[in-house]
Amino acid sequence: MIIPKSTRFTPEQLNEVTAIVTEFGCKVQPIVGAVRTIYAIVGDERDELMINRLEGLAYVDRIDRIQSQFKLMDRRSDLASHRIAVGGVTLGEELFVIAGACTIDPKNPNYFYETAQAVKEAGAHMLRGGVWKPRTNPYTFQGDVKSMDILVEASRRTGLPVDTEVMEEAQIKVALDAGVTCLQVGARNALNYSLLCAIGKAIAGRDDVVVLLKRSLHMGPLSEFISAAEYIAAFGNPNVILCPRGTAPTLDGYRNHPDESITPLLKEKTWAPVVVDPSHSVGKASYVPACALAAVAYGADGLCIESHVNPSHGIGDDPKQSLTPDVLAETIAQAKQIWALRRGAAAARS
Ligand code: PEP
Ligand code: MN
Q1: DSSP state for residue 322 in the 8-state scheme
Q2: CB 320 within 8 A of CB 285
Q3: pLDDT (tens digit per residue) in 50-77
Q4: Burial class (CB in 10 A: 0-12, 13-18, 19+), 37
Q5: Can you spell out the DSSP letters for 17-68?
Q6: Which atom of ligand 1 is nearest to the CA of 102?
């Protein structure tokens, strides 16, 4: 829909607008109102270049898009009935939990093996463990590919599928060859379009692999987040789980600005499941359970929680924000109650 700056286009302006949309296979249909006329674009209005050229005209106020720019991830797209099943759970049907260490310590693999067993007993469906780590400080531990063997062994011992972050193209193949089920795109790489394309291509057509796409610290409108998911889908695989994990600027006292409250807004726009990461959102173990429960109350399909059998002996984020397995178990139990309440309320409304 083209909205002119004045009450209607002059005949010359209408000719110019018509010439542009015609180049892109569309037509213009004026909609005459009592005080102003607006102009519908009839045809596929998703071509970015056409929109940019129209927006560049001095006499155009704005373009309101009717069609979604998300051909695959939109709630009304052909993929709307697509379901993602992982770790024995179809997302949306029961609360899905990913838990485990922030960072695998290659020098102390037993911590990770014990953590893996403990998070399984606490109710997690998938084990997380950072092999490669995006660290703000270049002098801190950056991860170690040797940890991949530990992740795989922990998966073998527990039977849990595993999630790990990939930061560059070469790591995608290493992770897939090792049998990683969930490729995590971290907050720092959520806007790295070449990585998103490479992931989509590497897992094209595979229904046994999913992507956990974190929300970037600096993402603006929600459409930017959904567009990042659209990249992965457009290049080959729609198994993308959206993961709000807090944004910048921080809320004083928390690690980031908690953003679990965007869940209902995401659900209005996309069919993609939402799994909230409260650990990076608030950044301190004592705040994590409340944030996790709030996320489920807001409608999240699952949670991704950092947990460690002995947080003070962990590395990376674990000493400050990992839950001990008993607190994790309690949080999962309470989150399931909120899930059941939500379900009950939804059933009563329908
Ligand atoms: C992590 O999951 O440990 C991590 C680094 O997450 P994020 O990309 O959200 O900071
Ligand atoms: Mn972490």
Answers
A1: P
A2: yes
A3: 999 999 999 999 999 888 889 999 999 9
A4: middle
A5: HHHHHHHTT-EEEEEE-SS-EEEEEES-TT-HHHHHHHHTSTTEEEE---S-
A6: 3
Q: Using a 6 Å cutoff on CB, does residue 303 contact ligand 1?
A: no
Sign of CA dihedral 263, 266, 268, 272: negative
End-to-end CA distance of the chain: 34
Which ligand has its closest atom nearest to the C-alpha of 135?
Answer: 1
User: 57-60: long-range contacts at Cβ-Cβ below 8 A with a sequence spacing of 24 or more?
Assistant: 57/13, 57/16, 57/17, 58/5, 59/4, 59/5, 59/6, 59/9, 59/13, 60/2, 60/3, 60/4, 60/5, 60/17
Cα 220 to its chain centre, rounded Å, is 14
Helices (H) and strands (E) in the chain, counts: 12, 14
pTM above 0.90, yes or no: yes
Counting every residue, how long is the chain?
A: 350
- 98: helix, strand or coil: strand
CB neighbours of residue 20 within 10 Å? 20
Look at residue 149 in the predicted model and tell me its pLDDT. Answer: 98
Q: Which two tokens stand for residue 350?
A: 């329908």
With a 6 Å cutoff on the Cβ, whether 245 touches ligand 1 is yes
> Could you say which ligand is closest to the alpha carbon of residue 217?
1
Higher local confidence (pLDDT), 332 or 349: 332
Question: Is any ligand 1 atom within 6 A of the Cβ of residue 125?
Answer: no
